[in-house]
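question for whoever is on the cluster today: can someone run the full assembly for these? four chains, 1788 residues total. i dont have access anymore since they changed the login thing
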Amino acid sequence: MKETRICILGGGGRLWPIQFMKDLAFNPATKGRVVLYDIDYKAAQNNVEVGNRIMSLNKSGDRFVVEANDHLKTALSGSDIVIISIEPGKTEARYADLILPEKYGILQSVGDTTGPGGIIRARRALPIFFEFGRLIKEHCPEAWVINYTNPMTLCTAALYKVFPEIKALGCCHEVFHTQNYLAKRVGEWFDIDTPDRREIKIDLCGVNHFTFATSAYYKGEELLFRLKEEVKDSKTFPDLTEVALKRLKEEKWFECDQKIALSFLKEFGVLGAAGDRHLVEFVPYYLDSDETLHRYGVIRTPYAWRERVAQEKRNKSYEDKELIAERSDEEGVDIMSALLGDFVMVTNINRPNEGQISYLPLGRIVESNGVISENSIRPIIASDPPMSVQTMIRRVSDVQELTLEAIYNNDDEALFEAFISDPLMTLNLKDARGLFEQMIEESDKRM
Amino acid sequence: MKETRICILGGGGRLWPIQFMKDLAFNPATKGRVVLYDIDYKAAQNNVEVGNRIMSLNKSGDRFVVEANDHLKTALSGSDIVIISIEPGKTEARYADLILPEKYGILQSVGDTTGPGGIIRARRALPIFFEFGRLIKEHCPEAWVINYTNPMTLCTAALYKVFPEIKALGCCHEVFHTQNYLAKRVGEWFDIDTPDRREIKIDLCGVNHFTFATSAYYKGEELLFRLKEEVKDSKTFPDLTEVALKRLKEEKWFECDQKIALSFLKEFGVLGAAGDRHLVEFVPYYLDSDETLHRYGVIRTPYAWRERVAQEKRNKSYEDKELIAERSDEEGVDIMSALLGDFVMVTNINRPNEGQISYLPLGRIVESNGVISENSIRPIIASDPPMSVQTMIRRVSDVQELTLEAIYNNDDEALFEAFISDPLMTLNLKDARGLFEQMIEESDKRM
Amino acid sequence: MKETRICILGGGGRLWPIQFMKDLAFNPATKGRVVLYDIDYKAAQNNVEVGNRIMSLNKSGDRFVVEANDHLKTALSGSDIVIISIEPGKTEARYADLILPEKYGILQSVGDTTGPGGIIRARRALPIFFEFGRLIKEHCPEAWVINYTNPMTLCTAALYKVFPEIKALGCCHEVFHTQNYLAKRVGEWFDIDTPDRREIKIDLCGVNHFTFATSAYYKGEELLFRLKEEVKDSKTFPDLTEVALKRLKEEKWFECDQKIALSFLKEFGVLGAAGDRHLVEFVPYYLDSDETLHRYGVIRTPYAWRERVAQEKRNKSYEDKELIAERSDEEGVDIMSALLGDFVMVTNINRPNEGQISYLPLGRIVESNGVISENSIRPIIASDPPMSVQTMIRRVSDVQELTLEAIYNNDDEALFEAFISDPLMTLNLKDARGLFEQMIEESDKRM
Amino acid sequence: MKETRICILGGGGRLWPIQFMKDLAFNPATKGRVVLYDIDYKAAQNNVEVGNRIMSLNKSGDRFVVEANDHLKTALSGSDIVIISIEPGKTEARYADLILPEKYGILQSVGDTTGPGGIIRARRALPIFFEFGRLIKEHCPEAWVINYTNPMTLCTAALYKVFPEIKALGCCHEVFHTQNYLAKRVGEWFDIDTPDRREIKIDLCGVNHFTFATSAYYKGEELLFRLKEEVKDSKTFPDLTEVALKRLKEEKWFECDQKIALSFLKEFGVLGAAGDRHLVEFVPYYLDSDETLHRYGVIRTPYAWRERVAQEKRNKSYEDKELIAERSDEEGVDIMSALLGDFVMVTNINRPNEGQISYLPLGRIVESNGVISENSIRPIIASDPPMSVQTMIRRVSDVQELTLEAIYNNDDEALFEAFISDPLMTLNLKDARGLFEQMIEESDKRM
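^ ran it for u. tokens below:
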């Protein structure tokens, strides 16, 4: 068992750092030091305390030292693993991402990955990641870097832009939800206990949050074949407006019934492999109105709630039972173990395209399966989806590339080209220009 | 001078066949036989009479025999050159293409190339071209085939689909208009007589009707550089609503001021190289409303006018002065001469991609410059436009490929995938499905 | 546990069929029926007896029925797995492959994969594989097909040529030897027991018998780094002529010390990952004379021995102890189990290129790692070797493609183009033509 | 008519500078200044005198000023056109290129482009071209650069390596010889006067000195078809040993009968489009012995003659009649005129691959047809030769790339990888290493 130095950027956060430390506590094959860095140093210090409670409660205090560090360079220096999970700018800046487009008739359910909101959020986030990449190159070039921050694809791409040899990947749990959905259906179909999601083997392709399963297996049974039969039946797509309104009332933003994922299967022959609220943002078919969206049971997460919750999280204190580690659905610690040589692991990862996605240029950050083993991640070539889906993915990836280049060159004129190329943008040029300028102004103001 | 057998499919038409015969009469280096074929045999016979008058009036009666032929196979048999310029289905079928989308809020200015109208028109046209391709393979496989029919890209692609070795190209005069515009500007800038459009050298890329100039030269002077300065000035884009309304009243559908072409130059750095009424149909920025469109001086050609004019053309009789040949702007006869070995010619052509458009798959029908000489057309590699433009072109080409495959396989479900992938389609799936089914029904009814 | 029907083509052989049945007997997770087909029906019948003894001796008689079948179509019909391990033509035909080139000064150590011998052997083998492919398409299109026959790449390619949707792969144990060599070295370096070869993780690329390791790991330790230090030392390359002569005398054709594999590491930076006797045949550096070859401890397997041993094998009878199953180094049965959904397996496979080898055209049969799971083989993208090695691999693959096309088209003129393009061919055209014609004549005579 | 500043690097030479000035004198559409630079300043000064005589004798004194300049930077500064034609190192250094390989049994007929001689010559030449490229970037980045120096491909590639935006091309007259040969044959076949070579249209592909015609036309007549019939007849390939020996005696090194070019047509289906003495150096089929070579009428240019002639040229004085300008076969001045906007020209050029050669990576310097017009060179896509020829070209280009990278990185170990990858190298590694080290030593000594 090797001593591992893990640096968490955004270490003051109340979500990923704590989950990650619980997973470390749960996995007895790890040991070393956790260094928490955050621009809010006090938040990082608070998490040291939480981290120590986690280690202690889970009898792992001898395995991990947790500490905060106020200097980015020394925090990174000598790290074996760097975890990045940050909020780029204040939560208030998301007003620009979400409320302004709505005024022009552009609805977004999440607004952090794609669409006008995703692009302006990227404009706040990427300069931070360019800086991270440069410092990693200088202070821990051999470290494996795991990014959780959205826009995932662009933030990961930003690291590679400034340090092409970086050993980085993006991790996202959206595909796990698809596996969980299929596991549940397997339970129903075969009248067995719901299997673990890891037993559902998906052949995956796309870019983060806009991914598709071209096949799915459980113990030799092909599962999409069954779903394809179901989606032919109009009963699979009842009007879920009532469900949506109930969810709206109960603030259950993240719940979904995979009706969008299944709608893709019906129209294009491949199953959407991300949450419905993400999938709808990459095409013009679902967000023309809340009425259309609600028919699929999907609701939009409002800015007001985000603002309120961000406030609540900052003040949250943890009870012991919240800090007890158990087998979680997150894979960060597993990936870390695999990279250190403990085992070989096949899972979905966001990585530069080496050919795993045949219809995208090399170098683009794409999501597909990969094999993780000793100090090595090798992509597995994804099966091709139908050409209509390739076209959609290609377009999304192209807009991402335009966005990356524009922000890298600090060129808002070029960024406007990306902005109007986004699938959600159907405004005429005058309105598009008006929206773009307002969003930039508000985003800058609230940064 | 070789005897050349030229077969004109759609030989009863009142536009291309007559212009083409005038061009033959004008070019003294040609001789042979013109065979007119049309599903309306009487129209072809009428054009024999017109053709004979043309030859006689232009003292070319000894060079060309003009005849009609009622059998497609014998008309094609032994041809050296095949010209295709047909109307796929009755003009009345265009009701489906144009009026129905409008009811769903989708405006189209031409509706014969792209958008829902272009796709449904392709559904009428392509089966005819599959048949043409098969018969050419059988009866005159060595003939050079020049297509003028819209949707140009798809009709030409259909020929290659069934006969990959066919020696076919698509010809279109839209780029000539751009050359004429630039020639006029050259006259103004340098205070000289407007030069011949052929003296304006354009580096061209794209797909038919959605083409772009990445550079333009007149005698060593780069011209886009000057235009780029102009488009920075807001005076280049005055509100042309009054002009548009006047054009509407005077039925001047084809007039334009290149404001859309220039708008592309402003936003994306390359000059649109087709008429504004075509360019607007490939992006969502100009057709959100007639108000937006009119601001650029562009108006939509209405279905009612098309219907009326089609009727008038059928009954038209020609005066002698209309049949006198002079140097025209069309290049069909020049291309024919070059292929027969008379000279080497560089011009814009629609051909399968062999790499001339680096960002499109091989085999797609693309428009760019080519060198035409003895029995040979070789593409010239086009310079790359900015990535934002590459993305737009790629998307349009992908939708064309989806359309081709769906129609080839007679698969309306697959055609619906193409339909909803088109840049003009921003309906939700329910509305899109409704429109699609109505258009097919009306198109079939009026075929 | 599923009932599996396994058809073995070349089921009368005395090597693979027997080993395969022993492996089936050893793996308790399999059951079903083994159908032996051979053009020598009697040999197949003899192996039924041997197979029954294997099942009985290993207490697996209740799991597998073994039978012979004299009709290729019924043998294949309904199979889940097809194993192919045949001798294309009589052993005597190898006279043409081995002796004739020697007369022209072209030495070959094996002569069944590449070089003039490999090409002429392919000319005997491929027509048989075209027939196999066509029959599999007709009688068991869903079967997984595992080929062991040389020339491996070309025989596997022949199956895909006639049936592109075939689910076939080529298996070869040469890489296992490289793993065993590294495992032995690991034992020495770390002073531990020699680990199992499966614990050595190799990143692999190339075409069968001409493969290279770009990295190798054991529990997080990179191994090539150590070897690169060693090859800098001239002591790593002593003159092994004496060793070679001893091997020659003792008929130890297959023994080697990896000096050729290490010589590639020295000159080109990547470790050869096949036996030395194979590696030397793809480049001109080692076979200019036996003297050069012997310096590396490598000897050539003579035709006379092959002829004698073939005779002996035919008459061989088995003792019980030879038929007792134990964990073997062959992976055929493991792969079969993985394809049936028992587990996920990463190993080296020969498969059509989907991009796993970035510098070879798609569709070529290449060797690299792949992930095998339920009814699915997905290639893992191999890391690129230095460009000098890419060039060598590309050339070999190109010659294979030329050979495949020529034999498919039954075109000996085209085959001569392949013949003179082979790395071992340095004759002038007159001599090359003479050799080619003699080899064909002899090969045909002894077929 | 624009004032043009032309800088000739190697301006003291006795071949290209003088021919080029004669061509300038002949073409009345040019005017400006010729600046001669040479490391041998005196030689440049001598050529100023010759240049002035040329201008005066051809009544062009008012159009061109000729001057010598002893400083590379000021010579380049402000140039519109840069011509490069230098000898890299002393002629004596060619001893290393030519004599040493012969001692190891490697025969070369020219030894300046490929083979061990070409590689070691490149090692002398490329550092000079890296310097030229850097200075052009600094002092005349907009200039068009025309290179005539061998190894042509590598010297041109070196310019792009250090200045990727350079506007450079390589010019070579070997293809003109092929056109002249075909023109002569056209005269025979059609019983007409030999037409001008420019009337022979060749579709060309390859890398410099290893180029192939896939088709050739004269006024609509395909010419390769006729030659293909001829090469089937063994009378087309008589034993030309006597001819070769006569040439040897008469020192007619450059004469040939295109028998090698035709031998490629016979074996591979495409006509070699360079002189036989160049073509033989890229494959192992002709240089195994002088006997083989002589059978085709080809002889090797000896080092001794080169040494003697170099000396003679230095001391040469010109008679008036040698300086009278007439229409020459060289195209440098024509290309210059076309780039200045005088006309559009289609000819063979050496340029970075933008896709004109489909089977080579982008960026490699390749030879094919291009369109030259106002400040623009656009490649024409070459038709593909058979795959066997693609493989040969690919291999040669790969070795060139390896050579370029190795010399750029000043890495002789990497250069050895290139050296042993060359088609002419069939030595074992020990001998190869010995030859390599001796050649480097001698080349360095005589540099």
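summary bc i know u wont read the tokens: Chains C and B do not touch (no CB pair under 8 Å). The domain at 93-110+172-298+330-447 of chain C is CATH 3.90.1820.10 (LDH C-terminal domain-like).
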